[in-house]
Write a structure and sequence with these properties.
PhoU (chains A, B), 6 helices, homodimer, phosphate transport (chains A, B), transport (chains A, B), mainly alpha, disordered N terminus
């Protein structure tokens, strides 16, 4: 016999696996683009662009559904249990990306509400926080795409920096609200927007942890600092 | 040949499938219990009970990891693609439950911060919102456990009621903050706690939608009202 059917199947399985990783990374890039667009509309106070971002979120949701079905179809014809981790990562990472897309969309949506009030000085801090979050997502996707466990660990460690910036902004906003009660409504939106960005950082960390899991199985990760201490500590 | 190895495998596959559904429902009940305990500690202002709830969240996270691996192991020995939906639901529902557990734990955590301030009258409204959310999760789990598509639809529709109560509480809190700037810090915690409960309702809806998907595949669900309009509408 000269044909090697088994090898052929294995090869196309690997190709399909690779195609799926690429599709997941593309899905992630769409989510990051949505986030960056959301940060822009906050700056530009552009309601109609914000509505477009909110509408675009459907395509991320659709991608997650499509990818999870493709991953499962692949799993069901897969050679064996050694692919378990690959499959689980292929389901969990799109789910994190889908949530990142939701948060980006919510930032855009709240920017519309924010535009009903005069411009706020804290938008700059929000933007800095958002760009940090976008960078974390990009790095996590790169770690996934390139099987880079060290980069994954770095993403996980850098989340503490994002949390510190979030906590600082949170406290600044509270102080501002106390000084000027008229700022309470817009500041509340900014609080939720900041929280969304902090959550995006957590999902970037989840992606990074899934990359670690993919590469090293259940080998435990070192313990890490708590993520958001605004829920236990009051403002300065 | 008298032995029927294939039938035997199919039967134990179904049994294992059933065992997993039960384990997922148990995981869900733990999350609801955590939520109810979190609502209680808000009322009782009991910091040490709150810390216990936060610590318990680890067991929900561990259950999700264990279940998702069991679901995948089952998938990999599964008869065929007809089980695709079952498997996907078996991965997605625990992921929603895991998030519900996180939100419950965060409500407990914020109650500790809240206890640094004098008691707030809005705690009653928060509790009502939380009990509604807990009811929604219970119903969604029952729909999953009993393959009840009508109950799943009802859960999805009832989410609008939870959103209305959330929006009312949100506006009440904003008004209160404007009237008394000293209430801003505790009210901010209450805002986030209320938001957590509203998100729990969304995850109950996700579970209900996964039950629909499990029973009817991609047959579309009727469109539904938006979930949270505090991000577009200011307070009354």
């Amino acid at each position: 016999m000269t044909t090697q059917p088994h090898e052929h199947i294995v090869k196309s399985y690997d190709e399909e696996q690779r195609r799926l990783v690429e599709e997941i990374v593309r899905m992630g890039q769409t989510a990051v683009a949505q986030l960056e667009a959301a940060l822009d509309v906050v700056d530009r106070r552009d309601d109609s662009a914000a509505r477009r971002i909110v509408a675009n979120d459907d395509s991320i949701d659709a991608a997650e559904r499509r990818i999870s079905q493709d991953v499962m179809r692949l799993a069901l014809r897969g050679p064996m249990a050694r692919d378990l981790r690959e499959i689980l990562a292929g389901l969990r990472i799109p789910s994190d990306i889908e949530r990142i897309g939701d948060y980006a969309s919510n930032v855009a949506k709240r920017s519309i509400a924010l535009n009903a009030s005069p411009p706020m000085p804290h938008v700059a801090g929000l933007r800095a926080l958002g760009l940090l979050a976008a960078g974390q997502v990009r790095q996590a996707l790169r770690a996934y795409s390139e099987d880079d466990d060290e980069l994954a660990l770095r993403v996980r460690e850098n989340d503490a920096q994002l949390d510190r910036q979030y906590t600082a902004l949170f406290r600044e906003l509270l102080t501002y609200m106390m000084e000027d009660p008229r700022s309470i409504t817009p500041c509340t939106h900014l609080l939720f927007m900041a929280k969304n960005l902090e959550r995006i950082g957590d999902h970037a960390t989840n992606i990074a942890e899934n990359v670690w899991f993919l590469l090293h199985g259940d080998r435990p990760l070192p313990p890490r600092d708590k993520r958001d201490d605004t829920s236990t500590a009051g403002p300065a």
